[in-house]
Amino acid sequence: MPWRPRWRRGRMTEYTADDTEARALRRRLADKLRDDGALTGPEWHRIFTAVPRHPFVPRVFLPSPANDGRYRPLDGTRPENRSIWLRHVYRDDICITQLDGDDRAWEVASQEDELTSGDGDRVLEVGTGTGYNAGLLCERLGADAVTSIDIDPVLVDRARTALGVLGYTPTLATVDGALGFADAAPYTRVMATASFPSIPHAWIEQTSKNGLVLANLTRPLGGGALARLTVRNGTGEGRFSARSAGFMPTRSHHSPTALHLYRQVSEDQENAATVERADVDLNAVLDTPDIRFFVALRSDVEELGVRYPDHPAERWLLAPDGSWAFATTEAGRPTVRQGGGRRLFDEVAALYTEWIELGEPARDTFGLTVSPDSHVIWQGSPVGDRWWPLADSSADRSSTRRTPSGASTVKELGRLMTNRPADLDQRPRAHGMGIYKRYFDLIASGEKTTEVRVDDISRKRLKEGDLLRFKCRSEEVLTRITRIARYDTFDEMFEHEPVSSVDPNASKADQLRNIPEIYPPEREALGVVAIGIELVEAHAEGP
């Protein structure tokens, strides 16, 4: 039996009260997380239903209705705000508590599910935040098995108070997360709810043999690189999740921001650069999640969009060494200008071409190996021939810059990277797509025969007769493309496509209402593609 808190022994206040409205909203959120595939077992569904979220976020900030980058506070301790505050807290969205982000329920649930914690586990959480995630872990494992650390003493104190209200008493400490917490080691699970530019080796050292480390890498381009590593003999190794992650970077990590780098480029430098034809659509590359993920792992570039009232928009690439490039439209044709010691547009275009040549791989075909002095990313298998050093994304790279060959970075792993497993070449060549669990099940049963996506660059290569492999966690199903139709908007698409072929369990109105949660207007502007599919075969386990 899981350890149970005694809430009534805590100091309850009016805003922390777990009333009927809060419980109903919490159950609705847990049901949504389960239906979306973020929670795959009944135990975690029970936990997300049981643990209140609202005591951890008494005040939140809401984006301005004008969407101008400003925020307005919403105080949940005021009775007149309670209903709207609760509805915001129990949405599957980011709860902004310090104007620098906090936990999004789907991402927290996804990490909990990836971690597969069970009885007997001891967990180190790096990044206490509000304390909500620590509360979930306490409900699952018992407070004695949970340690949570954060660099911010104010957050730790607030989390301790909120956890105490609910009767949870885990070990909490104020410490730099990169150091781990040796006092309570070893752990069977290390879970970072803050993101780091690399995996601190202290986490590997403090994890028991065959234990797991689940962490999100901070990359200048983002990309949501969530890695699940198994620890053996001082090394952590494993694949990246099919799910993206977006937890807040740690405050101990400092790098030039894209805006700062942009401001270092003078107008004279821009005007002096040669105007070149852009053979690759930079917007499409950066707006396609799987391509962006690959580029983020391989490059240290940052990006910035610049808009003008009377001039075409510009998409900038910037690097810590002062190199820059921007793509735009001039006289109706796509152009690029580049400056500095590196040709950043050419670098990104080359990585895009490499991704295409690799077979347009999905993010969960990539993995990471972490040893005491290296980070190596690989595709397919850690002992195959597709591997690269993780790009250094720190601002001061003078002492850590790798050689172009990466030999100094992966020297000690060379013996592992000589033979490519034969089974990788035996799998049918197919495009890959990640998908929510409820839609995956409909495809696997043959009920869903049309998949709908925005028409980004990764969809341009699809053609009738191609194989298309849908993936959801460890499950996959292989289909064949029977037809492709393109439309300007989702509304137009539903005028021509049978609603039941897209989702037999939802009406047209419901589907149109849910689509903006997945594809905001700026993504829909890329166009819409409807992909007809038929089953070829299904696999219970992934590659």
TrEMBL record:
It is found in: Cytoplasm. Keywords: Cytoplasm, Methyltransferase, S-adenosyl-L-methionine, Transferase. SMART domains: ASCH (SM01022). It holds the Pfam family PCMT. Its EC number is 2.1.1.77. It comes from the Bacteria. Residues 433-537 form the ASCH domain. Its main location: cytoplasm. It is an enzyme of class 2 (transferase). InterPro entries: ASCH_domain, PCMT, PUA-like_sf, SAM-dependent_MTases_sf. Belongs to the methyltransferase superfamily. L-isoaspartyl/D-aspartyl protein methyltransferase family. This is Protein-L-isoaspartate O-methyltransferase. It comes from Nocardiopsis endophytica. The lineage of its organism: Bacteria, Bacillati, Actinomycetota, Actinomycetes, Streptosporangiales.
